[in-house]
Amino acid sequence: NRLTVLAPGVDAAGASTADRIAEAVRVHSSAMTTADRFVFYYAGQANAVGDSLRFNLPGPDITQDDLARWLASIQADTQLVVLDCPHAALAARALARPGRVLVLASTAEQAHATRFGTHFVPALARAESDANQDGNVSVLEAFTAAAREIEKWYQDRQLLPTETPCMEDNGD
């Protein structure tokens, strides 16, 4: 019932800055219970600095540790964090925790822009993604469908893949 969308190039209230992301997480955290579900989806550019992921935002960038600190306040027992950016898997260790599923568009080493979201988001709503035919598309089913489509996209164009989606689902 609650949604916050932040994007570059919009007014100050909706800009995707570090301060606005931190504030949005605080607002949701204050209204959330353990029975709620929480989804955080970052789509954009990022770069690696040493062993740290930096999310490229208007103004100061944030790191995986900033994001982990902000998300620590989320009470929901069920959490999904999607990082649709280069080097996404760098953040896995900092963000992993029980009850949180991480969907990562690329490995830690992959530095190129990802195509993941153009496959993952539609797969969530597509009946063909429902591998076990239970009438619901799970995150795992959508992830698997997207990973296959990405692999096929590169094969069809005879290109070396520059992204390999990853998933962390048990907090280890």
Folded structure, characterized:
- By secondary structure, the chain is an alpha/beta fold.
- It is 30% helix and 19% strand.
- It has 5 helices and 7 strands.
- It has helices spanning 18-30, 64-71, 92-95, 117-125, 139-156; strands at 37-43, 46-49, 52-55, 62-63, 78-84, 100-104, 166-168.
- Strands 1-5-6-7 form a 4-stranded mixed sheet, with no helix packed on it.
- Strand 5 (78-84), helix 3 and strand 6 (100-104) form a beta-alpha-beta unit.
- Helix 4 (117-125) crosses helix 5.
- The relative contact order is 0.13.
- The mean pLDDT is 93.
Q: Major sheet: order of its strands? A: 1-5-6-7
Spatial gap, N to C terminus: 30 Å
Taken in chain order, the helices and strands follow as HEEEEHEHEHHE
| Structural class designation | alpha/beta
Radius of gyration: 16 Å
Keywords:
alpha/beta; 30% helix; 172 residues; three-stranded antiparallel β-sheet; globular
Explain the layout of strands and helices.
Layout: H1 18-30, E1 37-43, E2 46-49, E3 52-55, E4 62-63, H2 64-71, E5 78-84, H3 92-95, E6 100-104, H4 117-125, H5 139-156, E7 166-168
Parallel strand pairs: 1-5, 5-6
Antiparallel strand pairs: 2-3, 3-4, 6-7
Helix pairs in contact: 4-5
Give a short synopsis of this structure.
By secondary structure, the protein is α/β, with parallel strands linked by helices.
